[in-house]
UniProtKB/TrEMBL annotation:
Keywords: DNA-binding, Transcription, Transcription regulation. The lineage of its organism: Bacteria, Bacillati, Actinomycetota, Thermoleophilia, Solirubrobacterales. It comes from Baekduia soli. Residues 1-58 form the HTH lysR-type domain. One of its GO terms (molecular function) is DNA binding. PROSITE patterns: HTH_LYSR. This is LysR family transcriptional regulator. Belongs to the LysR transcriptional regulatory family. InterPro entries: HTH-type_LysR_regulators, LysR_HTH_N, LysR_subst-bd, WH-like_DNA-bd_sf, WH_DNA-bd_sf. One of its GO terms (cellular component) is cytosol.
Length: 315
């Protein structure tokens, strides 16, 4: 049984003759009749009784009718859904992001996307870049914006922005000069993304740097989110590592008790788009990525014009 056979069957049923049905569908009448005969043969029943030059539906035809209509309606709805998605008139845009994306232009990106495409739902998922990379690799997400490094097996990676990571402390004595990895090894550190450990890109950078220099990094406090790390640092419980973009977005919400300095060997969050290698991205994903790139690069320009590189407590 094919959709074509069901379409021909319904046309014959509605028109009352094979000839009229064929004319409606712009077909040769023998072609339509042959497909209906094949459908009858497959079902093992007659669907029409031939009456003079017309046809009369049998009880079997009346029983088949609602199912045939439902099948063709489902196909049409599927086609409409795909067209709507292609033209960004419906569907859902699902995108993966790194954990601190809310402190970057994430909100503005969603707002811009929804203003342009109000009929498309938006779903942002992801707490950590490694989690997003795994979801994209598995096909659960179409694309994502993540922080490097990650396991890029099976992925296409396109870096778009770097943001400097700085050392945040309420102790002015520890902010007299750019921080070395040896300073870090001796400091009471507060690190974020506790659930992900070495899967977290920032931690991976730190631990790789420490390994090269022959020192060991052991945090005094592990937390999940950057806001908690900043609050604890402001209360003198330890020192945190925070990207300048986050500090820029927080603005006056960063406690004045805190100051920051850069690393002697600069440390950066590198943000990149990822998708499965060779995958064809949907219009929604491409549009979201274009808006995200525009927003991230605008922030990069702002960070490039917001000195100083050294910021004392209370300054």
């Amino acid at each position: 049984m094919t959709l074509q056979q069901l379409e021909y069957f319904l046309a014959a049923l509605e028109e009352g003759s094979f000839t009229a049905a064929a004319e409606r569908l712009l077909l040769a009448q023998p072609s339509l009749s042959e497909q209906v005969r094949r459908l009858e043969a497959e079902l093992g029943v007659a669907l029409f009784a031939r009456v003079g030059r017309g046809i009369k539906p049998t009880a079997a035809a009346e029983a088949l009718r609602p199912h045939a209509e439902a099948a063709l309606s489902a196909v049409e709805h599927a086609r409409e859904a795909v067209v709507a998605q292609r033209e960004l008139q419906g569907g859902i845009a699902t995108f993966g992001t790194f954990g601190t994306a809310r402190w970057y232009p994430g909100t503005q990106i969603v707002m811009a996307f929804r203003r342009r495409h109000p009929k498309v739902r938006v779903r942002l998922v992801g707490q950590n870049s490694s989690e997003v990379a795994a979801a994209v690799r598995a096909g659960d997400l179409e694309a994502g914006l993540i922080a490097l490094p990650i396991d890029d097996t099976g992925l296409e990676v396109r870096p778009i922005m770097q943001d400097e990571i700085v050392y945040l402390s309420a102790d002015a004595a520890r902010l007299r000069h750019p921080v070395t990895i040896e300073d870090l090894a001796a400091a009471p550190l507060i690190l974020t993304d506790a659930s992900y450990g070495l899967e977290d890109p920032t931690r991976r950078q730190l631990y790789e740097l420490a390994q090269r220099e022959g020192v060991k990094i052991e945090p005094a406090i592990d937390v999940e989110d950057v806001e908690t790390a900043i609050e604890l640092a402001s209360r003198g419980m330890g020192d945190a590592l925070v990207a300048r973009g986050v500090l820029l977005s927080l603005g006056r919400r960063v406690p004045r008790r805190l100051g920051w300095v850069p690393f002697a060997e600069p440390l950066h969050d590198t943000f990149a788009f990822i998708n499965r290698r060779g995958a064809r991205l949907s219009p929604a994903a491409r549009e979201f990525m274009a808006l995200a790139e525009e927003g991230m690069q605008a922030m990069a320009r702002e960070l490039g014009t917001t000195p100083p590189r050294q910021h004392p407590p209370g300054g």
